[in-house]
Amino acid sequence: MSMIKRGTQVPARWRLLACGLFLMASGSIAAGADGGIVDVHALPQLEGAVEDTSRPDPYRVEYRMPTPEAVTSPAVRKLLNADGWVPYVLPLEEKSTTLKFKKGRQGLSVHFTQALGRPDQSVVYYTTDRIYSNVPFPEGASDLVFDGTRPYLGCIAPGALDATSDFFTKEMAAIGWRKLTPETAARWPNADLGEAVPNGVRVFYEHPDGDTTQFYNQKPVMLTLTRRDDGRTNVEIRVAPFVLPQELQADDDIAGLPRPKPTKTARGLGSATSAKHEMSTAVMADLPAVLAYYHRELAARGWQENGNAPLAAGDEVAIKVSSAEETGVLRLGRKYDFTMVSLTAQLTEAALAARARAKKEADEKFFKDAETAARQVIAADEARRKVQAAALSDAPLNALAGSNTPVPLPENAEGVKFAGDDGRLEFSSASSVKALTAFYRAALKPAGWKEQPSVINQPNMAMMEFSKGGKSISMTVMQMGPKVNVSANGSGLVMATAKPAPKGGPVSSDPAGAQAKASGPLEADPESALPVPKQRSSTSLGTAKLPGIDVPFRRELEASVPAELSDVLAFYRSELAKLGWQEKPDGAVVAADRVQLAFTSPQGPAVLKLARAKSETSIKLVQKNPDAATKADIMPRPGQAKLLLGNMGNQEAVLTINKQAIKVAAGAGGPQSPKGPTLDLPPGKYQYSLKMAGRPARNDTIDIAAGDAWGLMVGPTGEVLPLQMY
Length: 726
Hints:
Blueprint: H1 12-32, E1 50-51, E2 60-65, H2 69-82, E3 86-88, E4 99-103, E5 106-115, E6 118-130, E7 142-147, E8 152-157, H3 161-174, E9 178-179, E10 200-206, E11 221-227, E12 233-239, E13 249-250, E14 260-261, E15 263-269, E16 276-283, H4 287-300, E17 304-308, E18 317-322, E19 326-335, E20 338-347, H5 349-391, E21 414-419, E22 424-429, H6 433-444, E23 450-452, E24 457-458, E25 461-468, E26 471-480, E27 483-489, H7 511-518, E28 538-544, E29 554-561, H8 565-578, E30 582-590, E31 594-600, E32 605-613, E33 616-624, H9 626-631, E34 641-647, E35 653-657, E36 660-664, E37 678-681, E38 684-692, E39 698-704, E40 709-714, E41 720-724
Parallel strand pairs: 34-40
Antiparallel strand pairs: 1-2, 2-6, 3-4, 4-5, 5-6, 7-8, 8-12, 9-10, 10-11, 11-12, 13-14, 15-16, 16-20, 17-18, 18-19, 19-20, 21-22, 22-27, 23-25, 24-25, 25-26, 26-27, 28-29, 29-33, 30-31, 31-32, 32-33, 34-37, 35-36, 35-38, 38-39, 40-41
């Protein structure tokens, strides 16, 4: 141990350390001898209790009982009563399931829980409660309401007024309370000790030593005793009104309405913009001070007081109030030592109508601006397309020399991608749709390929179907910006590509899939609304819903994963099962190159389709929500399909399908008129034509299945956009 010579100056840090050690030692001694804290480990426990000693705590005991809480709770109350503990409830917490007890200046909280997984057993918790402001309980008192932090006491003493008064005179003095006199109360200018109490007495006390912990100065209290008709005595002890705040400050608003502070509890319904909103709170102040606060605060906010309102139960004051747009009622009453406040307000009929008009005008402006912006975008896109189309060449094309694809390539083909295993070809060209379709018709016809009729043969897009000897080729030629994209697929493009097998045995012909498989199991992307592997090379997620309906009635995920089809199938069976989806065996297709499975999900039916494409596995997952579709009124009839028709143009359109001519008004199915015409049809493939005044007729086909709902939206320039809605 180091020694410091007498007379040596001690550094400040050593003095602080010595003080800290002294305080810690003092605190430890005080805690060990604290008469205000009950030793919960010495309290009686019910017969059959099994105490939990795994986590020792000097201020808490936990034990298990072989009886349910409904039996354990009254048994504990009876046990503690017999040991001298007096039960009470906290103000405004009369329905609490926690039991509160007081014995002298010690407090105790008891609460219960059900034993884990055992409704026939319960767990009891004893926890110490410190009573900071102690006052005596009359023996045999009933209806005890107590809070040891202020303090507050309300009860009915069994004795007469004089006997109860003598009890408090003796017991209050015994625990350090001293009666206030005009001389000792002089430091409080508002103190009035002489107010008479009808049929009772009132005495004021102070506690010069502070609270029981001597931590803070105890405020004076007011004891009020009044006779009852049954010979007993009403008792109330609360903080003296003259030491409570006389001018209250504003706290944060509740539901857009003012509240003062300090408060014990507060709640609100609605907000400042609601048609009706209300606020209630328990203020720790006298009623006159609370009333003065609301006189001041409401006036500052432009509210007027319009006379008294009918009093309700518990009211001492009820005032009608109003502002430029609202009317309301302010109610004040006393409960225990609180002033209870209720303030309600609601919009007038005129204000409601004005808000409705303003909202309608804002909505109309929003939709009008959105429609104008959409028209501008579409018009700009159409103009850009025309400029780009004009730059494309209509000149006849020659075949590219040296090409090893099953069909010839034009001489200006760019970015050629050919997958012989899958029978897919894709490239772009600076020639027009017209020139490219003419090139392939001229090149394939002499080779014996027969073209099937197609209804899609427009300046910016054409589709061609060729067949020969049981093989087929489908080609789509579409203008994509300043280039034209050509994509083709079919059995007529399949070419076997021999690959030498390495020593040691055969390997997969799918290097990308093998690489993905070797990299580890597929993992789900937690950010995706529908399950999809993180290892995907592409993905898209679409939802279908109508304005005003938040829940989509159809969700569709498309993705491509560089993994074997079997691995992707295993991934989806695992992930969908985690979401509660159940696989249906009916109609299931599980082959080496494709999979189609039906599911039932918590939201509705779903279909999963997998296929091999470009050395990857393509994914299409569709989930439907029949409840949302029914709510949106787009649910097809059983065994039927439904068409929803819309028109974003500024003139009427006539759509003819299945020998029915349907007029679609301008704006129908759009923001201004969401409900457009609908048509129920049997499942099948239908041709339809569209006519608009001053525009050429448009013809196309749509293939619809039973249970599907499709939208056909007419654009401002007369084009038709098909979109599956359900």
